[in-house]
Specification:
Oligomer: heterodimer
Number of domains of chain A: 2
Largest interface: A-B, 49 and 43 residues
Structural class of chain A: alpha/beta
Helix content of chain B: over 70%
Radius of gyration of chain B: 21 Å
Order of helices and strands of chain B: HHHHHHEEEHHHHEHHHH
Largest sheet of chain B: 2 strands, antiparallel
CATH topology of the largest domain in chain A: Rossmann fold
CATH architecture of the largest domain in chain A: 3-Layer(aba) Sandwich
Number of strands of chain B: 4
Shape of chain A: globular
Number of strands of chain A: 13
Strand content of chain B: under 5%
Strand content of chain A: 5-15%
Distance between the termini of chain B: 13 Å
Shape of chain B: globular
Helix content of chain A: 40-55%
Order of helices and strands of chain A: HEHEHHHEEHEHHEHEHEHEHHHEHEEEH
CATH class of the largest domain in chain A: Alpha Beta
Number of helices of chain A: 16
């Protein structure tokens, strides 16, 4: 039996490579996917990886790729580890990679300086370095729909609309004590001065992710009116369980978009009822594009995803990433006038991306997310987010789109971009006029 | 027969004391250096140099550092990752404070900062040994990691908490930063590693190395014979941390290009300890073999299914990879607890008497 299965698998593998071979000999669109299906963050990494891969596979099946060219994806396992991420980058960049989505702030930081040298753009969608939103200083890096700072300002303006405003309130900020978690602190501090609220910080070191009792003891002592969380991986369910234990009012506890997945709330279940989180792409399978993915990829068995997870928060976020990349490829092909684009032409496509509400509807993703319009100056778009709330078994969208405080955030972003560039004398900038 | 020493006479003490007393070994060393300095830069692809050779050499240097402490002096340490971090952060500070100084010089200088910190955390070794010392070095690891996060001055108040390598030139050749060619960085790393290996070898074969080994074999006897444990142990900690520090500085400046505290966590301490144990305690050759085994083998194994044209999901490859490496570690430790260096020595002995073993 085992022998038969092995022979079958080998035969299948050979046949499938034979099928792929003629395609890759021609012109293709090569998109490497840095994924993490193993390691401590695999719980979040697997649905993202599935969502990204399945959308490309669907485009290949349904439309024959983009502009007549097949999309060839190649997964490379990073385990959310910066060193492995760089290894993946080195291994794949020579094959004509169009764009990188590192899905880790650590890997993004490594790739930002490499992008202009190798002429391959980096799209860190809603993570990475906030300052790359300043297009003049970071021509090769994009982080739309919104940076962490946009997101923080949206969350603060959401709080401002609740319970008679934020002025005079105390806001607790619990975060994973690495680059990712510390990213929004400068903005939070400057907002606290301008809007008149108090900030209490609760850093959670990577090793303490699953033992947060002491942190939440401090939360109880400080008793903030609102709690904001910048967590990831095992930190999220632990924090929610601990919050429930000290009877913190759940509807005053808001996570960012990496702290609001199904896998985060399932362990807490009923206890997490009322917990809110920001999100940028809707969950659910009721969109036409998702139905196509199910029809062309999941049902024929060409997806690695468990059918139940299709449409979950992180699956849809991975899919949204692929939607943006696919649209940028399309835009790049229009600008370049030919289908077989290079990394540099892809950069132009990412910069000219205009994902309007009408276009989203055409793609079968009406109301899936906020429109994105990138420009030469603005690589972060300042996109809007919405709030979702856990009802004990699933996420429910509870708010309209909340715009960030763009003018305020932009000034902070420019200052941060200047600081990043200041000690790099040969940094390549671009002029937008 | 293959490894025949017949006819190789030693006529003076110098020849008898040389590190490579056998002609074949000397030829082999010259051959390795030729391959490393000429063949690999000329024919190696960027991926091979960047993702295999550079990290291999850097980890080999760190393993030599730990081997000096653990293999030669018998003081087990779990702080190597943090000492590498000290080297990296001090190099970053030096490079940003003195932008016009030769960056290769600064990489070597940053080893001294690491050596100083290493000596401070080596002080408990004068009173405690064995597992208790492991715990104090583990404390060093966590304390230093805490410093790398909390002391913002160390990363120039960067909001992301990461250190990023600026572009620096030496004699108009770009050595660090993203524009640097892989071959340039490789040659710099290789030169530093070869020079430091040569120094380590001389230290170990000299008076200092002998005092380390006496402390390892029996500290009371060593003390009675006039070896001062204070000097011997602290010098081992200093030299070991110096090597780790230079390796850490090179890891960030010559390989990664940017680093967060995650790059110096306790897993790296374990990784290097494994390299030393698998390679062979108390052997410089073993440090290289261990680093090659732990770092290069997984990279090769990862590329294996693709080279065969098999369409295996990457996550499966990663899991299988873990199982193969884990299995091999157990296999090698069972057949030869003294590591790959010992296997190599046995092989050499076999080759010496082949085909007429006695």
């Amino acid at each position: 039996m085992f022998k038969k299965v092995t022979t079958g698998a080998v035969a299948l593998a050979i046949v499938s490579t034979l099928q792929i071979a003629p395609v890759s000999a021609q012109e293709t669109l090569y998109v490497p996917l840095l994924t993490y299906r193993t390691g401590p963050f695999a719980g979040g990494g697997i649905p993202i990886a599935n969502g990204s891969a399945d959308y490309y596979a669907m485009l290949n099946e349904r439309d024959g790729g983009i502009g007549g060219l097949k999309i060839v994806t190649e997964e490379c396992e990073t385990s959310y580890n910066s060193q492995k991420g760089v290894e993946c980058y080195e291994a794949t960049k020579g094959n004509g990679a169009l764009v990188y989505n590192p899905y880790s702030t650590g890997i993004t930081l490594q790739l930002i300086p490499k992008a202009p040298v190798d002429e391959i753009p980096v799209l860190s969608m809603g993570y990475g370095l906030s300052a790359v939103a300043v297009g003049e200083k970071f021509p090769w890096t994009f982080n739309y729909p919104a940076s962490y700072w946009d997101q923080m300002s949206s969350i603060i303006s959401f709080i401002d609309t609740q319970d008679g405003g934020i002025k005079g309130k105390k806001v607790g900020f619990i975060y994973l004590d690495v680059g990712y978690g510390k990213e929004p602190i400068p903005l939070l501090e400057s907002l606290s001065e301008s809007m008149g609220f108090e900030v209490v910080k609760f850093p959670v070191a990577g090793k303490e992710m699953q033992t947060q009792s002491s942190h939440w003891l401090n939360v109880r002592k400080e008793n903030p009116d609102w709690m904001i969380m910048w967590g990831w991986g095992a930190m999220n369910p632990t924090a929610i369980k601990e919050a429930a234990k000290i009877k913190y009012p759940m509807d005053h506890f808001i996570g960012n978009w990496w702290s609001g997945a199904d896998v985060d709330l399932k362990p807490a279940g009923e206890a997490g009822k009322g917990y809110r989180s920001a999100n940028m792409a809707a969950s659910g399978t009721h969109f036409q594009a998702l139905q196509d993915v199910i029809k062309y990829v999941v049902e024929p068995g060409n997806s690695q995803a468990d059918p139940d997870t299709v449409g979950s928060v992180l699956y849809n976020r991975g899919l949204y990433n692929s939607v943006v990349v696919a649209e940028a490829i399309r835009t790049a092909q229009e600008i370049a006038g030919h289908a077989n684009i290079t990394g540099a032409e892809m950069r132009a496509g990412l910069e000219a991306l205009d994902l309007t509400a009408e276009r989203l509807a055409e793609l079968g993703l009406a109301d899936f997310t906020a429109p994105i319009k990138a420009t030469c100056e603005n690589h972060g778009s300042g996109g809007s987010i919405f709030m979702q709330q856990w009802d004990g078994s699933k996420w429910v969208r509870t708010s309209d789109l909340i715009a960030p405080m763009t003018d305020l955030v932009r000034a902070e972003l420019e200052a941060a971009a200047d600081q990043y560039v200041s000690d790099k004398p040969n940094w390549k900038t671009q002029s937008c006029n | 027969m293959i490894y025949r020493e017949t006819g190789q006479f030693k006529t003076n003490y110098k020849a008898d004391n040389s590190i490579f007393p056998i002609l074949q070994d000397r030829i082999a060393i010259i051959f390795y250096l030729f391959v490393a300095f000429i063949v690999i830069p000329a024919f190696g692809s960027d991926f091979f140099i960047n993702s295999m050779m550079i990290p291999f050499l850097i980890f080999a240097l760190a393993a030599i550092g730990l081997n000096i402490l653990t293999g030669f002096t018998g003081q087990i340490s779990l702080g190597t990752g943090a000492f590498m971090g000290v080297g990296a952060y001090s190099c970053y500070k030096l490079v940003t404070i003195f932008p016009d100084t030769n960056v290769i010089f600064l990489i070597v200088i940053s080893g001294f900062f690491s050596a100083a910190i290493g000596m401070v955390f080596g002080l408990p070794s004068l009173r405690i040994k064995g597992f208790y010392l492991v715990v104090t070095t583990l404390a060093a690891q966590f304390f230093l990691e805490w410093c790398f996060i909390r002391i913002e001055w160390l990363y120039n108040y960067n909001t992301s908490g990461a250190i990023e390598v600026p572009r620096r030139e030496v004699f108009n050749v770009i050595v660090t930063g993203p524009e640097a060619a892989a071959v340039t960085q490789y040659l710099v790393v290789l030169s530093i590693v070869v020079a430091m290996t040569w120094i380590a070898s001389n230290l170990i074969h000299g008076r200092i190395g002998r005092s380390w080994m006496m402390i390892r074999d029996m500290d009371i006897a060593a003390e009675l014979m006039g070896v001062r444990p204070l000097y011997a142990k602290l010098s081992a900690f200093a030299v070991s941390s110096f090597y780790a520090g230079v390796a850490g500085a090179m890891m960030v400046f010559m390989w990664l290009g940017a680093a967060e505290v995650e790059s110096f966590d306790v897993n790296h301490s374990f990784l290097i300890l494994f390299m030393v144990i698998i390679g062979g305690l108390g052997s410089i050759k073993g440090s290289f073999l261990g680093a090659a085994f732990i770092w290069m083998l997984p990279v090769v194994l990862r590329a294996f299914p693709k080279a065969l044209g098999l369409d295996v999901p990457v996550a499966t490859v990663e899991h299988v990879n873990f199982m193969i490496i884990g299995g091999l570690i157990i296999f090698f430790l069972i057949i030869e607890p003294n590591g790959l260096a010992r296997i190599w020595a046995l092989l050499k002995q076999k080759l010496r008497v082949w085909p007429f073993p006695y």
